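Notebook p. 47: complex prediction with zinc ion.
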Amino acid sequence: MSLSTSRQQFLAYESHAEQDIHYKRKGGVFISTCICICFVIFAALIASLVGIIVYYITYYKVSQQSDDFWNEAEPFRKSSKPSPDLRLPSIITPSFYRLKIKADLETSTFTGEVLITIRASKKTTEIILHSKNLSINENVTLTEQTYQNVPTSKFKREINATDIVATTEPTDSTVVNYNGTVSTVSIPTSEVNNVTLENDTIIPTLPSNAETTATTNVPVLETTMTSVKEVTLSNVRDIKLKNMEFSTGDRLILHLETPLTPNVDYTLHMAFHGEILNTLTGFYKSTYKEDNVDKQFGVTQFEPTSARAAFPCFDEPAFKAKFEISIAHRQNISVLSNMKIAAQEPIDSEPGWQWTHFDRSVQMSTYLVAYVLSDFKHLETSYISKDNVTKPIRVWARPSLIKNAKYALSIIPKILAFYEDVFGLPYALDKVDLVAIPDFSNGAMENWGLITFRETTLLYDEKEGVPRLKQHVAIDVAHELAHQWFGNLVTMKWWTDLWLNEGFATYIEYVGVNHITPEWNILESLTRDKMNLLKNDALKNTSPVSRQVVDASEISQKFDEISYNKGANLIRMLNHTISYELFRDALLLYLKKWKYQNAEENDLWDAMSEATKSDPSLKGLSVKEFMNSWTRQPGYPVVNVNRDYDTGYVTFQQELFRNSPELSKNKDLKWRIPISYTTMDVPTGNWSTKPKLWLNEKTLRPLLPVNQTQALYVNVDAIGYYRVNYDQRNWELLNAALESKTISSPITKAQLIDDAFNLAKAGRLNYSYALGLTTCVIDGEDSKIVWETLLDNIYYLMSNLRATSGYIYFQDYMKLLLKKQLEKVNYGLDKPKNDNEAFLIENLVVSECLVESSRCIKWTKDEFEKLIANPDSTDLPNYLRSLVYNMAIKHGGRREFELLWDLYLNATEPNTQHTILSNLPATRVESLITLLLEKSLTDIPNQSASILWAVDPPVGTKIAQEFLMERFDQVYEKFTKIDTFMFPIVLNSAFGNIATNADLDKLKRFALQNKEKLMPMSQTLQKIIDSAVLRINWIKKYSAGINEWLKQYVTENATHNHTNTTPAPTLTQNITINITPSTSPTSSPLLDI
Ligand SMILES: [Zn+2]
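Predicted complex, structure tokens below:
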């Protein structure tokens, strides 16, 4: 699965919710003065005592309650033990599903029948499987199947082609017909004899009610066979069911009268029906407009745990089985599934209906089963796979958009061919369909052979030609195709190792896109994403890549940036550590060994160890120990590098890196860190990302061949998943190299800037160093990764300084930084030279507009008016259109809002719709913000509803918070019904920018009040809280000093002519940012350098 682009990443914090304490008033009594005095004294004593007791009880109560919820280590205080209903018992395993579904989109209902072949590994009287929101007919049957081979010399087989009878998993010698029958068993080979066989071939049929032993017969179609050696007889015996029970964890428990015999096949038959829901999960339906007519389609989205809502099944990734699927549907729509269509036939009893039967699948997990019912059209191509088979590739979309499928269609064969080379195995199925779904939750889903996408991640409008959108398509297609090996062919054993699927697919997607479009330098984007992730992975409650799932809600929470991006970057680090050749050898070993099975991370490390044995330079490397130190511990380290300039010894010291120093204390974590290094005067062509040292203990003090004047650079190309901090003198040497343009690698520049800003944020480096490094772009910088990294870090300052008096200096400073490069690219008014320049320009102009330059405000206003007057005008480059909408909405009022809303209503192209919708929440008009939030509950397709919550702080977020708190039940109901991923987006949109303690307390009170409902989003909530605490402390600590630095810098440089000179202040000028003392002083020795 790939995440939706609207799935926002969360930023970070802590305090204690206040409790309302109520005292009850009591009545009085009349008594004498003396008694009264004594009593008063006595009462005073008692009162004091009571007061003290009440105080302590209250205090105790408050701290207990706060602690109960906001416990620092386990905020939602979840048990570390998995809940007992989380897993199915492993003693029963399915091997085959015969699934028949009759789907009626018009009545939004489906009926189904499933026969599951199961085996028990030991005696049991219980069969436990999954079923969710399904009505199961009571006549569940269970049949025991035994097989016996009988030699014979006569053969005659009989088939009734129209009689669709479900089957059990056949033996090797069984012939399965596409209509679902098993027609014969033993296939003759050599001797030639015209023989017939009477009544001795087998179809396991639905059992009768009586508990009998019987041999079943096959109806007629006489065939002449050449020879027969033996046939298999099957005995069928019914097992009586005592009762059926629906239990917690979506479990369906069947209690049997007699126990199952181990290692014997049983066929479990169930009929069921359910609703096709208007959600984005399970088997759901939605509509789209074509020529102003509403059209319906039905689609499945089963990952992670929704197959059980479509048919009763053993819905865990390790219960792989083969599937034979038939769908009954109206003849005016078509149906697709994982496998090729085997046969179609009308249903005589129901005119206008037909069965579509699909080939039997390969061994696969339930979450990969899929079917789509629609009237979509397709474009088709094919490729010849490694095993020399021509395999059709089809891209499907609604008829009016099918023209936009060309780009995807052009890249799929190239990516598949490349992956077959990388993985050494052909694509396993004999076709692949990719379908653009008009209403879809995630970016895309890798169902084997039937990959589903949002329209915006599969379709690309060549005419519009927005490079960013093209790149999104390439990335998502490459991701889902990578899953056809990593995920589908070899699957994680359990969701604990989801990262194996997602981390690998994410890494390989970049490698795949880099292969087909090297000019994008897409691997730079992987590095940039890593830098962004390092920020969130330094939050207080970040979690490890490989983490145990203890309850069902945690499964969907694992689809996060840690599983995807951290997983990808850890695998990349391993690749660079052992070399690409050995890495690929290991992949081949791993995939070959585990294909059609399930594996866990240590299985991958074993393959890597096996492959690295041959390399003497890796002798002694335990891949398992190395990688487990990264996947099983939360967060990551900073490597502190301190050089002894006289002796040449360099001390490398590792410690946990957190966004604030107090969070790193007393955390005795250790990583096995591959250390690559070079010096800045070495030409980049001679740099190597292979480690020269290993920092396995806390410290290491080698003698390095680096002289005093050389700048030492550690973690070459930012491949290692860690940050590096240097001593002051080395920082100055690095800065000098940056200033003198000795550093030509854009990644290195970006890495130094990113490390410096985040070390400063964590109190490990003075901010003047980080800000000083930014001036390296002031004379112009063409690299997009340098700008992206720089601007990402500066946006953090921007959002935090926005409410401070120094914000005006920040605005001026930004204008200074951007000026030269913006002039160089003529503010994006000329056609960009290539896609990378378009990405860069978009970023620069957006930044200029964010700090509200008068040029930008005027230009966007004019452009908006031109667009409204002539929507088809092509004067404005398409990639800047979103920005123009945004500024028009932000600086306009009701008129602009309504004009844009009308544009949305008239738009037919999904990317245009998305662009408009995502900019509407930028409005600052309170009533319009509320209007949008209301619309999110009613008027918007499910997939876009959460976009309307992407409001701007502070006005928008304040209104969103109030709206959410006041109408919590309604909002919660709406979004959690769609799927498990939507409500966390809403939460983050409303609360993700908290910058005051008052707002933080408000959030905590809200969370306490709705604790039960919010429990499944505990990780999102904790991220929001961690980042808010960080932000609040940051503002307190740094804003004054940074504002002062900016003021001084802007004042000194305002009069400079920037066209030819670089404004100066850098770290060498020794401007130090003063930090406002806080109650928790930082401990870093490097704080004040
Ligand atoms: Zn994925």
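Notes: The radius of gyration is 33 Å. The chain has a mean pLDDT of 85.
Next step: compare against the earlier run before touching the bench.
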